[in-house]
Amino acid sequence: MQTTVLCKSIRRIAVISRKYSSPLFYSTTTSPSALKKSIVPDHTLPPNNGQQRRPSRKPFKDLFSLEERTIVVTGAGRGLGINLASAVLDAGGDVVCLDVLPKPSEEEWAGISKVGEETGRTATYHQCDITREEDVEATLTNVASQAERRNKPIRGLINCAGIQQMVDAIDYPTDGFRRILDVNVIGSFLVAKHAARIMRDAKNSGSIVFIASMSGQIANRGIHCSAYNTSKAAVQQMSRSLSVEWGRYGIRVNSLSPGYIRTAMTDRLLEEKPEIEKLWMAGALLGRLGSVEDFKAPAVYLLADGASFMTGADLRVDGGHCASA
Ligand SMILES: NC(=O)c1ccc[n+]([C@@H]2O[C@H](COP(=O)([O-])OP(=O)(O)OC[C@H]3O[C@@H](n4cnc5c(N)ncnc54)[C@H](O)[C@@H]3O)[C@@H](O)[C@H]2O)c1
């Protein structure tokens, strides 16, 4: 009698196992009725789920190409921004440079103009304060229609504009703290929002790259920059949050977090406190501070189709400064 019951049970388990032997059937302890409720049968999923935006197969070199598109770069009047703008041109794209400065840095702009003339690619410069939404919207609408006319629609943005300030937190003037958040967080958001609207309305996929900082994850040794560090942590989280909302439009959103780079921004800090260079170098695993050249390939990669499955990520490019900070 007991043997018959045991045999029946084994047969029943075998039937259930066959019935649920799909990749969704993971648990061996859950009761069959609970499993029936928890399993999503394939036919309830939307047709072609996960297949709709599958990238077409491309030659390897095209995975790093920005051809047939225009990329907007903010903070492109000097420093990291203008160098990333030049990388966009080198990678085959047209570039729209925005900055609050009336004119871009002459030497770098001369290089950009030369590449433009040699390759037939377009680079334009527009004075625009990213904290003024009307200016941002008007400028982006204008450059987007020019880009459409060139058959190189806007399909990317590098949000690089930013400001830094070294002040002891205990004495931080509220206005100063607000200004940092206004430019680094809200200004970056405004440009991302209007660029995303343009890409969504044109039904173009695209990529947004926020230039954050390792200071979004660590508090730098030797300098007191609580507002800046707070703003960069917010940029990383904003980028992650936008990736959740805009993936449905085919817009990828990632942040790139550099370590120390020699630019006007760090030159000013080093002028005020020359002794901190020694401290920074002590944490430099590659024995040097960053140069603007170090960020060209990572930024182009995030913009290009080779990163087609990358969104919501923070790419830290800091020469190991962060690991040892
Ligand atoms: N230099 C570094 O060590 C370092 C490290 C990590 C991250 N970053 C980030 O990289 C980005 C570029 O920094 P950088 O070192 O080239 O500094 P930078 O000061 O040389 O360049 C910043 C640019 O942003 C522009 N800008 C400032 N406010 C603006 C506004 N309201 N509207 C439009 N443009 C505005 C400035 O005019 C300037 O051209 C910043 O976001 C910065 O936080 C820099």
UniProtKB/TrEMBL annotation:
Residues 37-59 are annotated as: Disordered. Keywords: NADP, Oxidoreductase. It comes from the Eukaryota. InterPro entries: NAD(P)-bd_dom_sf, Sc_DH/Rdtase_CS, SDR_fam. It holds the Pfam family adh_short_C2. The keyword Nucleotide-binding does not apply. Signal peptide: none annotated. Belongs to the short-chain dehydrogenases/reductases (SDR) family. This is Short chain dehydrogenase.
